[in-house]
Amino acid sequence: MLELTLCSLLTILPDYLYRRFYQGKEWGREITLYSVWYELRWGITACIMLTVLLITVVFYNHPATTNVVSFFRTVPILPDTAGRVSEIYVKVTDQVSQGQKLFKLDSAKQEAALETATRRVEEVDAAMVMAKSDVAAAKGQIQQAQGALQQAIDELRTKEELVARNAGVVAAREIEKLQVGVDARKGQVAAADAALQAAETRISTLLPAEKASASAALDEAQVTLDKTVVYAGVDGNIEQFVLKVGDFINPFMRPAGILIPSLGSRKRQLHAGFGQIEAQVLKVGMAAEAVCYSKPLAIIPVVITNLQDFIAAGQFKAGEQLVDLSQVSKPGTLLAFLEPMYEGGLDDVTPGSSCIVNAYSNNHDRIQTEKNFFKRTYLHIVDTVALVHAIILRAQAIFMPFQILVFGGGH
Fold first, then answer.
1. Residue 131: inside a domain
2. Do 209 and 276 fall into the same domain?
3. pLDDT digit string (tens) for 88-106?
């Protein structure tokens, strides 16, 4: 309507003035409701054409969109394992800090597993004590075997010396029997050495490995027990938290609630979806203005800080069926990230609020370097007609409360 009014001042009004004062035609005589279409045909036609051209230039070079939302992040409250709730430490809408307890699951099974792992570690410690006793016993057996071996060797040498002095004093069978006894005693010494080595190996290698394994199992059981208590991962507010003691929670099917992280010192953003036809006009650093439903009657200066390099409507994932392009029934939008030009510009805007955004092209640098007169004139016109869009946005800001509260039934 504003574009039509402006264009009529340049087309219909001069046409009427020409016919009124130059041709002498008066309103109500020659110019009536039925003849106005013929009498002012040039002005009306030019007005329609100029209006369409102006709207095209304004909306293409200064994009506008109502697909604007102040998104905020939510974190589902989920345990690592399924279980039944035994204790609850917070309430709905409570503000929590990172690491604070939220609720606890029944941990009888995990506590039993932890007790079993603890007893296994104690068993390994007891086995180490027994192994030390085995080492001492093996050393005693070695000394006993070595003593018996030495006695057998001494007796054999004595008999051999007697034989050397008088061949008939000792029978050859007895000498052989003594030699076999010495060899047997050597075997006993070797067996005792092997038993000692086995006992020492058990202390130095086997039992430490078993203890390490038992300690790992103990740590695993402790971690599993700790997972029965759910903590807040970030600072924020608890919402939709309707847990009761005895409820069954499954991390794959039923979350316990939602944790909305606190914004803290992070700068708030608006996320705007512009039409694909405006992809060549939108640039990072482009100035814009926003009007939000949660903060009416206020124009918020913002700037485009980032543009998404792809359009979400074109995404697909591999499946068992081929993608038919006819399924993409609605063209997607180009996502732009906008931040306030001034600190605190979006502080009063409720997260999740819908907004209206106008972005404005700036051709000042091109005008300074452009040598073509017609292009330079066109760029001047483009920057000038941004005023039309700015006026429209302010009119929307003024009429927004009336549109919602009066004509929209208060919704």
1. yes
2. no
3. 998 888 888 888 999 999 9
